[in-house]
Amino acid sequence: MTPEGLRAFCLSFNAAVEEFPFGPEASVFKVLGKMFALSRLDARPLTVNLKCDPDDAVRLRAEYEGLIAPGYHMSKRHWNTVTADGALPDRLVRELTEDSYDLVVAGLPRGERLRLGRG
């Protein structure tokens, strides 16, 4: 996955925006003010922090050791750092990104979830 592809995919979700609260080098992707992805798009290798179900997080880290790790500077229980430079299939990176978005949306009030089409 390219940095441009990651940015475009994150912004393809309903109400997703890119912000820079940690400086111009750190892209934070949010839905209705809640972060679902964080990446330094100019870093090599390209990585992205994604929210994850705690049980799935542990399983993914074991299955993709060295490519999926506990979230860097994040809650290690709920966030993973995913290497998105081609070592993992793009399909998996997209699935994990969508899962992160869905987890964040699931925590929003019902009316906002319905408005996003994720009731």
TrEMBL record:
Which PANTHER family does this one have?
CYTOPLASMIC PROTEIN, CYTOPLASMIC PROTEIN-RELATED
Q: Name one GO molecular function term.
A: DNA binding
Q: Which species?
A: Streptomyces tagetis
Concerning InterPro entries, the annotation shows: YjbR, YjbR-like_sf, YjbR/MT2646/Rv2570-like
Pfam families linked: YjbR
Keywords of this entry: DNA-binding
Q: What is this protein called?
A: MmcQ/YjbR family DNA-binding protein
Gene3D superfamilies to which the protein is assigned, alphabetical: 3.90.1150.30
Q: Which domain of life is it from?
A: Bacteria
